[in-house]
């Protein structure tokens, strides 16, 4: 039997929470009651960081971090609903909506997309298919 992991104190959206060491930022957000959208995250699989929908801000980090895979650190200050995070999520959803059929994503994802004011047609028909030949400019 593994020894119990020490609890780490972190702050999520201004709320202090304690989570076991080795847990993800996403788990800390859930403990705090903050919703973070996910597409590629499944409880039983290792996070793969491919969708980037779960990005959050961590104080002191230059970039947004994927909540599904970033491990919590003691004293971490996490913001889930900043303008940067909302903008990034909206962009990811719009890119996906322009090139992938999202009609079967489920009610939860539809609600996140609606909350993010996603414009599925923002990138036009050019982004909707990869069936077009690659455009090559070789007249350098």
Q: What would the keywords be for this entry?
A:
15% strand, alpha+beta, 5 strands, 140 residues, Ubiquitin-like (UB roll), elongated, single chain, 5-stranded mixed beta sheet
Describe the structure.
The chain is an alpha+beta fold. It has a single domain, classed as Ubiquitin-like (UB roll). Helix content is about 25%, strand content about 15%. The chain has a five-stranded mixed beta sheet with strand order 2-1-5-3-4, sandwiched between helices. A hairpin with a 2-residue loop joins strand 1 (about 5-10) and strand 2. The model has no long low-confidence stretch (mean pLDDT about 85).
Summarize the structure.
The chain contains three helices and five strands; from the N terminus they run ββαβββαα. With 140 residues, the chain is an alpha+beta fold. The chain has a five-stranded mixed β-sheet with strand order 2-1-5-3-4, sandwiched between helices.
Sequence-ordered SSE layout with sheet pairings:
Elements: E1 7-12, E2 15-20, H1 25-32, E3 55-58, E4 65-66, E5 77-79, H2 83-99, H3 107-115
Mean pLDDT over all positions = 83
**What radius of gyration results from the CA coordinates?**
18 Å
* CATH topology group: Ubiquitin-like (UB roll)
Beta content comes to: 15-25%
Return residue spans where pLDDT drops below 50 for at least 5 consecutive residues.
Answer: none
Q: Tell me the span between the first and last alpha carbons.
A: 64 Å
Query: What is the C-level CATH assignment?
Result: Alpha Beta
Count of distinct strands: 5
CATH architecture: Roll
Structural class: alpha+beta
- Helix % is 10-25%
Largest sheet descriptor: 5 strands, mixed
Strand order of the largest sheet: 2-1-5-3-4
